[in-house]
């Protein structure tokens, strides 16, 4: 894959922080966004418009949007679960994309957004339409694409059928999320290939958690299978408040290191990511799960 360019979405400000018990200040969230831009991120999931009682970390969604830096070529994404959230996101006037979410199983869909899987698909299609009507891009993620915390294994046919149905709403892209980090590279390869074929020419994005140590291997398998955009979170923080055991997104630093060593361009600056990791470790007052920032520089010039 040497010479290939992959799209990169930094999800740290939203998915990286949403499950943290200690509330992160709006100022620090905005600094995280600024540092992500400095590291090369051109698509950033900045917040989610959800019930603050359910996800207290995202209670400052409007304030974060109000403080977003004006940065040419940077697309800000707001995650929304329903029409009310979409209306809030659009009203900020600061976002470029709305990210809708639907879920492969009833069990998780009900826990995550109080609706069935089919209802979540209908809602996501409506959010895509709302985004486009407001002059924004609408994209959608299929949660629990590789396994459900409540129902276990998820049918690949179900995920492919959902992707095909969502494609009819003409989103900017469709993402497959391993919400609880149970995927393996063989499963990823099969499912991504099938979804790529089902929704072509729409791009397929992937979102992996490293809960069981397979995250980076799954990123590689997905890219080889035709995925063209990868999500990652600075420091490897993250998790879903409504999915038991859903710990840790794949780390931006680790994904970028792996891909760059393999000759795959992400547009990201590894040295800047490592510097941002050290800053974020101070904010969180602990060592972060990402591995590359803890290891000696290789080649040494990466940190010079």
Describe the structure.
- The protein is of the alpha/beta class and 304 residues long.
- The chain has one domain: Alpha-Beta Barrel (TIM Barrel), CATH 3.20.20.70.
- Helix content is 40%, strand content 15%.
- The protein is built from eleven helices and eight strands.
- It has helices spanning 12-16, 26-38, 61-66, 83-92, 106-113, 117-133, 156-167, 185-199, 215-224, 252-261, 270-284; strands at 7-10, 43-49, 75-80, 97-103, 137-143, 174-178, 204-208, 229-232.
- An eight-stranded parallel beta sheet has the order 1-8-7-6-5-4-3-2.
- The longest helix has 17 residues, at 117-133.
- The two termini are 27 Å apart.
- The mean pLDDT is 94.
């Amino acid at each position: 894959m040497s010479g290939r360019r992959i799209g990169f979405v930094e999800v740290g400000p939203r998915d990286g922080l949403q499950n943290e018990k200690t509330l992160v200040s709006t100022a620090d969230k905005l600094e995280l966004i600024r540092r992500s831009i400095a590291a090369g991120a051109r698509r950033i999931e900045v917040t989610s418009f959800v019930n603050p009682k359910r996800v207290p970390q995202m209670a400052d969604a409007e304030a974060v949007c109000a403080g977003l830096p004006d940065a040419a070529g940077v697309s800000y994404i707001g995650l929304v679960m329903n029409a009310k959230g979409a209306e809030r996101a659009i009203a900020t006037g600061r976002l470029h994309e709305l990210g809708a979410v639907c879920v492969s199983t009833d069990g998780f869909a009900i826990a995550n957004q109080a609706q069935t899987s089919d209802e979540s698909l209908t809602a996501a299609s409506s959010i895509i339409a709302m985004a486009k009507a407001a002059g924004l891009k609408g994209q959608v993620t299929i949660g629990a694409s590789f396994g459900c915390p409540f129902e276990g294994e998820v049918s690949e046919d179900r995920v492919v059928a959902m992707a095909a149905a969502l494609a009819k709403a003409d989103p900017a892209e469709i993402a497959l999320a391993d919400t609880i980090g149970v995927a393996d590279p063989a499963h990823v390869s099969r499912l991504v290939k099938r979804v790529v074929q089902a929704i072509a020419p729409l791009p397929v994005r992937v979102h992996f958690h490293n809960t069981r140590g397979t995250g980076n291997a799954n990123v590689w398998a997905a890219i080889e299978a035709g995925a063209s955009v990868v999500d990652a979170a600075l420091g490897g923080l993250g998790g879903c408040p409504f999915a038991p055991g859903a710990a840790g997104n794949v780390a931006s630093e680790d994904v970028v290191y792996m891909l760059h060593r393999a000759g795959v361009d992400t547009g990201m600056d590894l040295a800047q990511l490592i510097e941002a990791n050290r800053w974020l470790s101070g904010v969180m007052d602990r060592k972060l799960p990402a591995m590359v920032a803890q290891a000696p520089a290789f080649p040494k010039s990466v940190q010079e």
